[in-house]
Amino acid sequence: RVLRLWSQALPQEGGKRRPEDFLPLEVREAMPALLADIDQLARIRSEHPGEDGSARLLVELADGQTVESVLLPRGGLCVSSQVGCAVGCVFCMTGKEGLLRQVGSAEIVAQVALARTRRKVSKVVFMGMGEPSHNLDNVLEAIELLGTIGNIGHKNLVFSTVGDPRAFDRLQSLEMGRVRPALALSLHTTKADLRAQLLPRAPRMTPEELVERAEHYARATDYPIQYQWTLIEGVNDNEEEIEGIVRLLKGKYALMNMIPYNTVDELDFKRPSWESAAEIARTLHRRGILTKLRHSAGQDVDGGCGQLRARDLSGANQPRPIRIIKQTTTNAAD
Q1: Which residues contact 7 (CB under 8 A, 6 or more apart)?
Q2: Which end of the chain is more exposed for a tag (fewer CB within 10 A), N or C?
Q3: Pick from 94, 82, 88: which is nearest to 199 by CA?
Q4: Cβ(54)–Cβ(299) below 8 Å
Q5: pLDDT band at residue 296, thresholds of 50, 70 and 90?
Q6: How many CB atoms lie within 10 A of CB 39?
Q7: How far is residue 127's CA from residue 81's CA, in Å, rounded to a whole number?
Q8: Which letter does DSSP use for residue 302 in this model?
Q9: What is the pLDDT of residue 311?
Q10: Predicted pLDDT of residue 322
Q11: What are phi and psi of 58, to 5 degrees?
Q12: 163 in Cβ contact with 216 (< 8 Å)
C-alpha cells in the first residue's frame, strides 16, 4: 500500500480508510522513517517547461548526482536508468561523460513519482540517460512495480535499447502474466560499419541480427517493435538508408519512429529540415513501412539527453563530490 500510494503520488493519509484501521502497529510506528527514506531518494532540482507542452526535469539523487526526466505531451514520461552511459553514442551528450553509476530501481520509480506530482503520467519510456540493458535488474524491477501497483499499462512501459543479447534473452524469458514491456530498438542506420561509428561501444550485432531478435519478441508479446531513428543531416537521411529500412522492416511487426536530431551546440551534427524529414517519412509509408515523424520534445529547453545535466555541471561553482552508492536490496523498489 505504501509503495502503491508513493508511486502514484497519492497521499499516504488519503482515502476513507485510515492507516490505523488496517496497518500493523509495527508498520505504523516505522512509517515516519520509511517515508523519510523514500523522500530522500530524489528531488527535483530544476524544472524547464518547453513551448511544446513538454518539461525537462533535472532530478537530484541522494548522493548529489543528477539525472534527467522529461514530461512529454499526452501523459508520457521519459526516465533515466543510469548516471551517464557507457555506449558512447557520438551524437549524444550523455555518452561524453561515460558511465558514473547505475540508477537503483527505487530511484527510477522516484522519477515517476516526482513527475506525477506535476501532471498525470500514463506512459513511461526508458529513453533518458543511460542504456537500460546495462542495468537490467534495476530496470526490470522498476518496470514490474510500475506495471502492477504503479498502475501503468504494460504496453505503455517501453524498454529502449541499442541492442544487447542479454536484454533480448532476459525479456524473452519473462514469464507470461508478468509485466512484459514494449520494446524500442535504437537502430539509427542499416549499415553495420556506420552503426559501429555512431554507437562505438554498442554490442557488435548487425542491423539484420537486431531486427531478427526484436521481431521474435514482437511476435511473442504481440507488441510492435518501435524502431528509433535519429535523423542526422548528411549521415543517415539518404536514399540508400531508405532502401535499407525497406529491406529490413518490410513485413515485420514494426513501427519506425523518425526523430530529427536534437541540435547540441557542442557537437558537429546537424538537424535536417522538417520538410526533408517529412519526405523521408512519406516515402517509407508509400513503400509499406509504418512510419511516424516525431517532434523532438523540448527543443527550446536543452531537449537532448544529457544537455541539461551538462549545463548544470558546467555552471556550478564547485564540483560536487561523487560518492558511489552500492546497490543493495534497501535501494530496490521491492
Answers
A1: 109, 112, 113, 145, 146, 149, 150, 151
A2: C
A3: 88
A4: no
A5: low
A6: 12
A7: 8
A8: T
A9: 55
A10: 28
A11: -95, 115
A12: no
Residues constituting the chain: 334
Closest by CA position to 260, among listed 285, 283, 279, 284: 279
- Is the pLDDT at 321 greater than 50, yes or no? no
Strand partners, 119: none
The catalytic position among 68, 144, 215, 241 is 68
Side chain identity at 137, as an amino acid letter? Answer: D
109 pLDDT exceeds 50? yes
Taking the whole predicted model, whether its pTM rises above 0.90 is answered as no
User: Cell 497519492 identifies what position?
Assistant: 10
| Per-residue pLDDT band at 175 (split at 50, 70, 90) | confident
Q: Name the DSSP letter for residue 282.
A: H
* Annotation marks residue 305 as catalytic: yes
Q: Which residue, among 139, 141, 247, 100, has the nearest Cα to 187 in the 3D structure?
A: 247
Label residue 96 by pLDDT band (50, 70, 90). confident
Q: Which three cell numbers mark 189?
A: 542506420
Please identify which of the residues 85, 89, 92, 305 carries the catalytic annotation.
Answer: 305
Residue 292 cell numbers, joined:
511516424
